[in-house]
Amino acid sequence: DLESENPDDCLLSIFARLDHNDLDQLSTVSRKMMRLSDISRTKCKLFEASKLLVSQKNHETNFSVDYGSRWFTLNTTVSTIFKMTSIELGSSLRLESPSIYPDTLPISVENINLVSPLLTRFNFDIMTFSSIRMDDNFFEFFKHITSTRTVRMIEFIHCNFDENLSRNDRERYAIKSL
Amino acid sequence: RIYPLMRVTLTTSDGASVTVSRQLTKHSGFIEKAITDMAVDDNAVPLSAVAVDVDDATLKLVIEWLTEHRDDALPYPEKTDEERRADDIPAWDQAFVQKWDTKEDQQQTLYAVITAADKLDIKGLLDMTCKTLANKINGKTVEEMREILQLECDFTEEELAEIRKENAWCEN
């Protein structure tokens, strides 16, 4: 068979041309395929999504993805099984006036850990962050979901920077005043 | 410098001999290294035979592909991660692979050519055959993938359920 005859590099070259859904299937084929599919995820094809919207309202952060002409919202209230639930595009996803968000809040580390592996499946055309306080965790998250990707536009609406932001991040993102 | 008229004899794993032009073998990193290691005079004809760990039937397919691609530019361009795609197989190559589909052992033939391209270090052929197999796997179910890859499941039912749970990301 192919597996016994070929080195891992050859198989990885094949699997790098699959997408995450295929790798999900492949990971249940056999133990070796699971190991190789995990490695391939850093190089595989990404889902081309139109938009990522990260917004905060009433102390809850909402992650929504416009993919394939459908909006998906990330359900962060289910901590054990994390899934995206398809929703209808409606007024609930429209950005509200900044005055409705008098206080920005950082994205919790728990939420970042939940959504990061999922969002790395996508290549977003547009990213919008609304009413988010940008702390060091945010910039780590931001780097994670934008690295090796081509994002056409990134919007920050009513966002501000955390006063405890590290000097490293201030310099990296050219933040001159807080 | 490659001398196109110079010919190289290749001996296969099943004892056959095939003589081909250096114009073809220049695309094989393995054969070119073997010739370099012989340190022969460029004008020496014929060269000593180069042993390749590929059977006669597979080598004939490799030579057929090399003949079509003899004028391809070298070195073969390295692909970045972003450039890895599987939908750009040239028409001649598609027809070449389709031809195997009439055989009962189409899967074995594809695997044999992938393995040969890897062993002989023929990057263009390896790239094309990897794309072909990726296209066969793309969008298939687990059972279909097992059939294509000819692999047995070595997970327990509990392990499979756990992996599926971890992979679940979208409610339809």
Automatic annotation (TrEMBL), chain A:
Domain of life: Eukaryota
Pfam families the UniProt entry points to: F-box
InterPro entries, A to Z: F-box-like_dom_sf, F-box_dom
The F-box domain, residue ranges: 7-43
The name this protein goes by in its record: F-box domain-containing protein
Originating organism: Pristionchus entomophagus
Lineage, broadest ranks: Eukaryota, Metazoa, Ecdysozoa, Nematoda, Chromadorea
UniProtKB/TrEMBL annotation, chain B:
Keywords: Ubl conjugation pathway
Annotated ranges, domain SKP1 component POZ: 8-71
Transmembrane segments: none
Domain of life: Eukaryota
PANTHER family for this protein: SKP1 (PTHR11165)
Protein family: Belongs to the SKP1 family.
Name of this chain's protein: Skp1-related protein
Native organism: Pristionchus entomophagus
Biological classification of the source: Eukaryota, Metazoa, Ecdysozoa, Nematoda, Chromadorea
